[in-house]
Design goal:
RNA-binding; 40% helix; DNA polymerase, domain 1; structural constituent of ribosome; Nucleotidyltransferase, domain 5; 34 helices; 19 strands; single chain; alpha+beta; 5-stranded mixed sheet; 5-stranded mixed beta barrel
């Protein structure tokens, strides 16, 4: 089976044999008719000269006409009560001779006395338009919109933007255009509309490098109906170019999978790796969630009758769930009525407004009502006005943006200390091992001793420290608070009193005192708690993302360990009382023999003879021992037998593998279905052995969270962790590729574009109709439509040798019946073998591959041969890849992928670039270790603070992250994260040994290739 090559995303992780990035960005389009796949043809033309240009021009002309002024006011008819009329379509009214054509919306605006259509559509009154200040970016001088600043200058709130931006292909950086809406029945085909069909039904048109696809991403600006631009905000939050973010969002909405985008749409995503694409996907989903929740809140407030224009604008400007909750919390049903709402209920909102806009007309004594509680005196009226002003200050986006800017310039710290409850418990039971065990606490409070008096800058705290503090706080062992300098309060108060919340005209001393008190009250009672929550939420979110990223890197390394093929393996699940469970597996992972031996009881010699008999009978030379209970004793037993040449003439060696999740899998429904006649303990031994023969095929059967990777698993979002781990499993399975004729159903369900149901249908079709002869036959399977086929076809292989072997061993296939037969007739598939189906080349590029073979005088029968490889290399030397791509009417990246697929040898596997398990014959103990001893080992697990290395002494040593530096890593591993991955072979030096606590400190010398 031929595997694929892929680009490295982390150290020794998915290496895809990429060439250098080019500056050419190209998109693709696909046409499917009668089940036939046509090649994706790139469009290198400039959008202004492409076929879209007439359409764009027509659109602009149409919109320019709509934006003309309405009828003169003197022609306005007297207002009359509106009479309900039946909603029915009608033909557009033809303008009279010499009269300018206007839309119905423009006429209504003129009748209502609104002179500025764009201002009305933006949801701003006249004063807001005149005094609008944009802290997120600078307003363009041409009035076309706002320019977003870089990430480091990003602020948390933005003013509502003008909706309906123009098509990206024609706009400059940060520019936008404003158009009033027009009635749908009056639109011509080329007009822009918010009612355009779902993007997944549209085809991707061409776009030059640096531009998003015109015509499709135009709806992305307002499809969430928020005041911010989704693509600009995505670009700001992820540091990815705007056009790339637009393309990724469009591809996701078209139901494209991450592996498909990374391999077959590189130009559209600017060669991002899978992790970066998933980051954009995650942020986009978060923004969609915020938008959805915002709309729900708006509808709820509208139903309750408390929604105002200002409140709606504030809600639509929220960019996170925390900001939205801050604005919405006072209006939640069942929540305590806030001081501001009580004051508003008394009618003091007018007094607060007068204090800001016309303080010379305000006399608080006129608002006194002696018989009404809250208005009985001037003091109570003053307090009510202060509460309303404090609420206005705390909800104002500009004010919140300013105070956050002040905090960013200050030394904000997070502080943790031991809680009074934990301290009291500790004093009551000093030195007791189980101190603090009550109420579900950890048995040892001293685990958090590092954080009893901990203070750190909010910008320098490490992710693992944040998660540890959160865990201690949840266990009521730690008390945590955020310290904001007093200078922030003083600067903020001065700015509010003398700038943002200064009355518009001369105010009396008592009025200025009210504003000062309101600002101080707002900061202490509302803004400071909000800032604390924001910092804690931000730190937790960043720490969770780093922890999940560590899980992803570890899982990828674990899944891509090179398989040990071509030998018989004995899997051993060690144990004391119930013995060691054995499973002898054939080179193809078939179960040959299972047994139980008692190596740690009386009669060890008899059990040793039994082992020798089994290993000699089945020619087994490799032993795989699980790292669970009795692992060290079992390893010692085998090492002693090997040292005495007990298995002579067999050259026996052993290795230790991680058995995490084996016990859980042994009692799962999948294990029962696969091995119904075996005891669960013996199933564990089978799983341990197969983890070395085919790590990917075996580990995908286990829930990733049970594989034993990463740290703080229970302190991160379970949903986010599950989605990330499932994504990396899909990535690894897809990039390695599967042979559809021998692949298990469990493995196949993780291929991009497939799921459990489709994998089951493929397996059933294979059982009923025999092996697949080509990829086209996948279209005959129920549930595999055009989109599913497009996503999975490039990752599914048809190995000619496997096909021949399965055909020779299987019974003659039965006549196809039912839906499969009807679908076969419709799909026009054939049973002939296509050699390209064993490569990573996608069927949409088969025609390009055929033309390239003709260009180099090769044939499909020469795929993977040295002759064809030499011809391809010679052709590339005489003509550049870019020139060949233009000749073949394709993109350079597609051509590079085709060249890789044609030149890779049969059976190529990307995992061959990753290390295999270390098989050894001897053993050392911790008592043999001394500082300065140089050893080789294999990384067992990586965390946010370092890497644990198995050096063969029974417990892993720790390489602190400070010892993992760039100069100690190969050039290929110098990436954004210095964390080593599980399975990597390293050379280390012992720094210290704590035999009592069984802790070994190591220094990294280098990574072994």
């Amino acid at each position: 089976m031929v595997r694929t090559s892929a680009r490295a995303t982390t150290a020794k992780s998915v290496c895809y044999n990429e060439y250098e990035n080019t500056d050419t960005d190209m998109s693709f389009s696909q046409t499917v008719s009668d089940g036939e796949d046509e090649e994706w043809k790139p469009s290198n033309s400039d959008p202004s000269t492409s076929s879209n240009a007439p359409r764009m021009s027509a659109t602009k002309e149409k919109k320019a006409a709509v934006k003309r002024t309405a009828k003169p006011k003197q022609q306005k008819l007297p207002k009359v009560p509106k009479v309900p009329r039946e909603a029915k379509p009608r033909a557009p009214r033809k303008p009279a001779a010499g009269q300018k054509k206007t839309s119905k919306r423009a006429e209504d605006s003129a009748e209502a006395g609104v002179p500025d259509i764009k201002r009305k559509r933006a949801g701003l009154d006249k004063d807001q338009c005149e005094a609008q200040i944009d802290f997120q970016g600078e307003k363009n001088t041409d009035g076309s919109g706002f320019t977003i600043k870089p990430k480091e200058e990003r602020l948390s709130f933005v003013v509502p933007q003008f909706p309906d931006t123009a098509n990206w292909a024609d706009e400059g950086e940060g520019s936008s255009q404003v158009h009033p809406p027009v009635k749908k029945e009056n639109l011509k085909e080329e007009d822009f509309t918010f009612d355009e069909p779902c993007l997944k039904k549209l085809k991707t048109s061409g776009a030059c490098h640096g531009q998003a696809t015109a015509g499709q991403h135009s709806s992305l600006t307002n499809d969430l109906d928020m005041s911010w631009n989704v693509t600009e905000l995505l670009s700001t939050l992820t540091c990815v170019e705007k056009w790339v973010c637009g393309n990724i969002v469009n591809l996701l909405r078209e139901e494209n999978t991450v592996p498909f985008m990374v391999r077959y749409r590189k130009e559209m995503i600017n060669h991002l790796d899978a992790d970066a694409v998933r980051d954009v996907q995650m942020v986009y989903e978060e923004l969609c969630s915020v938008a959805k929740k915002t709309h729900s809140v708006i509808q709820t407030l509208k139903k309750d009758g408390v929604l105002t224009t200002e409140l709606e604008e504030t809600l639509r400007s929220c960019r996170s769930a925390d900001e939205l909750d801050h604005v919405y919390s006072p209006y939640k049903k069942g929540s305590k009525l806030t001081k501001a709402r009580r004051a508003k209920a008394l009618g003091l909102e007018g007094a607060a407004s007068a204090l800001l806009n016309a303080p010379q007309t305000l006399d608080l004594r006129t608002w006194v009502q002696p018989a009404t509680e809250g208005l009985s005196s001037v003091k109570e009226v003053t307090t009510g006005v202060e509460h309303i002003l404090a609420d206005m200050i705390a909800k104002d986006p500009e004010t919140l943006t300013y105070v956050k800017t002040l905090c960013e310039r200050s030394f904000v710290t997070i502080q943790s200390s031991v809680s009074k409850t934990a301290l009291k418990e500790k004093e009551e039971k000093p030195g007791h091992k189980n101190a603090g065990a009550e109420h579900g606490r950890p048995k040892d409070i001293e685990k958090f001793q590092l954080y009893f008096e901990f203070t750190c800058n909010i910008q320098r705290i490490q992710p693992h420290q944040t998660l540890a503090i959160n865990r201690g706080e949840s266990l009521k062992i730690l008390t945590v608070k955020v310290n904001i300098p007093d200078k922030v309060k003083s600067d903020f108060t001065w700015w509010c009193v003398n700038n943002r919340w200064r009355p518009k005209s001369l105010a009396k001393e008592e009025h200025r005192a009210i504003i000062l008190n309101a600002v101080e009250d707002s900061y202490k009672r509302l803004i400071l708690p909000f800032l604390t929550r924001s910092y804690r939420t931000k730190l937790t979110s960043e720490a969770e993302k780093e922890s999940i990223a560590m899980f992803v890197r570890n899982l990828r390394q674990r899944l891509l360990v090179s398989p040990v093929r071509g030998c018989v393996i004995m899997g051993v699940d060690p144990g004391f009382r119930h013995g060691c469970k054995l499973a002898i597996l054939s080179p193809t992972s078939q179960i040959i023999h299972t047994d139980v031996v008692y190596l740690h009881n009386a009669g060890q010699q008899r059990e040793a003879e039994k082992l020798r008999h089994l290993m000699t009978k089945y020619s087994c030379t490799k032993v795989v021992i699980g790292n669970g209970t009795a692992c060290r004793e079992t390893e010692t037993f085998f090492a002693d037998l090997i040292a005495r040449r007990f298995f002579h003439p067999l050259d026996v060696s052993y290795c230790i593998t991680n058995e995490a999740g084996a016990s859980i899998y042994s009692v799962s429904a999948e294990a029962v279905k696969e091995m119904p006649d075996l005891d669960p303990n013996l199933r564990s031994a089978v799983s341990i052995g197969r983890r070395v023969q085919d790590p990917l095929g075996e580990l995908v059967k286990i829930d990733p969270k049970h594989i034993g990777i990463g740290t703080y698993q229970h302190d991160v979002s379970a949903g986010a962790l599950k989605a990330a781990l499932e994504g990396v499993v899909q990535e690894c399975v897809s990039f390695v590729g599967v042979d559809v004729n021998i692949c298990s159903e469990i493995l196949m369900r993780h291929v991009a574009g497939l799921n459990a149901g489709r994998a089951r249908n493929i397996t059933e079709w294979r059982e009923q109709n025999g092996p697949f002869s080509n990829r086209e036959q996948l279209k005959l399977v129920k549930g595999i439509g055009p989109k599913s086929y497009q996503q999975c076809a490039g990752f599914i292989r048809i190995d000619p040798q496997t096909l021949q072997s399965v055909k020779s061993s299987a019974q003659p296939a039965a006549t196809t019946t039912g839906k499969a037969a009807a679908k076969k007739c419709k799909g026009k598939t054939v049973d002939s073998l296509n050699p390209l189906d064993q490569t990573c080349i996608h069927p949409e590029s088969y025609s390009v591959a055929q033309r390239f073979l003709s260009l180099v005088d090769g044939t499909v029968d020469q795929i993977g041969s040295a002759v064809l490889k030499h011809r391809v290399e010679s052709k590339v030397k005489t003509n550049s890849v870019e020139e060949l791509a233009r000749t073949l009417d394709t993109t350079p990246e597609t051509l590079k992928l085709i060249m890789d697929g044609l030149t890779q040898p049969p059976g190529f596997d990307i995992r061959q670039n990753f290390g295999q398990p270390d098989f050894k014959r001897g053993i050392i103990s911790m008592k043999d270790l001394q500082p300065g001893t140089v050893l080789t080992g294999r990384v067992d697990n990586t965390t946010l603070f370092g890497a644990f290395v198995d050096i063969g002494v029974g417990c892993s040593g720790l390489i602190h992250k400070s010892k993992i530096t760039l100069d100690k890593l190969p050039a290929s591993q110098r990436r954004r994260s210095l964390a080593l991955g599980p399975g990597e072979r390293v050379e280390v030096r012992v720094l210290s040994v704590d035999r009592q606590r069984e802790r070994i400190s190591l220094d990294l010398i280098g990574v072994l290739q």
